[in-house]
Amino acid sequence: MNIDEIVEKWSVLDTEDLLRDIFQQFGIKAAIGTSFQKTGLVAIDIASKIADNFRVFTIDTERLFPETYQYIRQIEELYSDKLHNNKIEVYKPDSRIIEAMVKQHGEYLFFDSPDKRELCCKNRKVLPNSEALKTMDVWITGLRADQSAYRGKLKKIQVLPADGKQIIKVAPLFYWTETDIDAYIEKRNLPIHPLYSEGYKTIGCIICTTPVRLGENDRAGRWRWEKQLKNLPKECGLHYQNGAGI
Ligand code: SF4
Q1: What's the CA gap between 177 and 173, in Å, rounded?
Q2: Ligand 1: which residue has its CA nearest to atom 3?
Q3: Is 172 within the bounds of a domain?
Q4: Which atom belonging to ligand 1 lies closest to the Cα atom of 118?
Q5: Is 205 considered catalytic here?
Q6: Neighbour tally for 189: CB within 10 Å
Q7: What is the DSSP letter of 123?
Q8: Residue 111 forms part of a structural domain
């Protein structure tokens, strides 16, 4: 089956059948990438019901909330018997690149301009993510259409160039609403990231992520200071093609 045929087949499968087929066809050449938000948790939980050995990876920007580091360990323990090598894989930035960036632009460069914020996201998130993608053919994400206007225009399945090959990027919960996600979590009694109870709707780096107010979309809590600077999608580059990688 070629990539076009796979995409055609997957595009009509529901979430569980889609994840089942991904892991049956690609095994550990597929992986769930997550920053431990609720959608990622649901994807991991569904995977744990249909696969005995699946990969989960995350990007540690080295600027995450202390609660996130604790939560990663908690989820790793919860699903360890199903996780490949019993672990959540953690990819970190290249220390030489970070040192050079901080030396040239300072530790808090992201406040200076959208371009410098994108540079920080590129070095701390996109490049480590690109390293992770080298190890897989299918990248499973927790993207959902209802998270922002920008994300609503993305696709459930995309084929992207990555390091000289093609990678299939799949968002198996793309059409789930926040209500669907919450209902699943309640039904399965899953432990969510502790910052949700403090008003956060997304979980990112500690300085760049803030709680979300009533009526705001999920991504509104990111880089709030940028609103006046440039009308950018609230994206770090992982899901936004802006010269910073995938
Ligand atoms: S979210 Fe902020 S600290 Fe984290 S990588 Fe992006 S700009 Fe840097």
Answers
A1: 9
A2: 205
A3: yes
A4: 7
A5: no
A6: 6
A7: I
A8: no
- The model's pLDDT over 82-101, given as tens digits with 9 standing for 90+, comes to 999 999 999 999 999 999 99
Structure confidence by residue, pLDDT tens digits, 208-223: 998 888 887 777 777 8
Tell the residue nearest (CA) to atom 4 of ligand 1: 205
Q: Is residue 30 part of a domain?
A: yes
Does 121 contact ligand 1 (Cβ within 6 A)?
A: yes
Q: Which of 25-29, 156-160, 239-243 has the lowest mean pLDDT?
A: 239-243
**205 CB near ligand 1 (under 6 Å):** yes
How many separate domains does the chain show? 1
Domain extent, residue 204, equals 3-94+124-228
For the CA of 110, the nearest atom of ligand 1: 7
Does some domain include residue 241? no
Residue of minimum CA distance from atom 5 in ligand 1:
121
Question: How far apart are the C-alpha atoms of 185 and 183, rounded to whole Å?
Answer: 5
Q: What angle do CA 14, 15, 21 make, to 5 degrees?
A: 90
Cβ 208 under 6 angstroms from ligand 1: yes
Q: Give me the CATH number covering residue 144.
A: 3.40.50.620
* Number of neighbouring beta carbons within 10 Å of residue 219: 19
Closest CA to ligand 1's atom 2: 208
